[in-house]
Amino acid sequence: QVQLVESGGGLVQAGGSLRLSCAASGRTFSNYAMGWFRQAPGKEREFVAASTRSGGIVRYADSVKGRFTISRDNAKNTVYLRMNSLKPEDTAVYYCAAGSVVTSDRYDYDYWGQGTQVTVSS
Predict the structure, then answer these.
(1) Could you list the pLDDT tens digit for every one of the 122 residues in the chain?
(2) Cβ partners under 8 Å of residue 62, min gap 6
(3) Under DSSP, is residue 24 helix (H, G, I), strand (E, B) or coil?
(4) DSSP letter string over 73-122?
(5) How many CA atoms lie within 13 A of 38 on its CB side?
(6) What span, in angstroms and rounded, lies between the C-alpha atoms of 45 and 38?
(7) Residue 86 contacts residue 18 (beta carbons within 8 Å)
(8) Which of 49, 58, 89, 93 is most buried by a 10 A CB count?
(9) What is the distance between the alpha carbons of residues 75 and 32, in angstroms, rounded to a whole number?
């Protein structure tokens, strides 16, 4: 089992920045690819970003490319999502997830955090 706890969400004005953190415990963190997803009210959970075990390869949704950065610190068992130039349409609950491969498919991830709310005001 892997336990994931997100933090860092909040209310920010459009154009602002936030950094989300996801702390992992349980099994060896570096054995897992990590992903970030988000879910807005009334919408499906969607892929945001993902990182391989080492962090050497990352993937992004087109909607966040150039604005968001995923990174990880395996020594701290933590994955981050730096979000810049935030837009109102980025408002959602953000979830981190752990899986065996880097993928944009949420069904390929085995473990999920409880989520953290990000609200971007216009």
Answers:
(1) 899 999 999 999 999 999 999 999 988 999 999 999 999 999 999 999 999 999 899 999 999 999 999 999 999 999 999 999 999 999 999 999 999 999 999 999 999 999 999 999 99
(2) none
(3) strand
(4) ETTTTEEEEEE-S--GGG-EEEEEEEESS--S-GGGEEEE---EEEEEE-
(5) 21
(6) 5
(7) yes
(8) 49
(9) 13
* Residue whose pair of structure tokens reads 């968001």 in the numeric block: 68
The size of the chain, in residues, is 122
User: Given the structure tokens 């990590």, which residue do they identify?
Assistant: 34
- In the structure encoding, which two tokens stand for residue 58, read together? 């990352």
In one-letter notation, the amino acid at residue 80 is Y
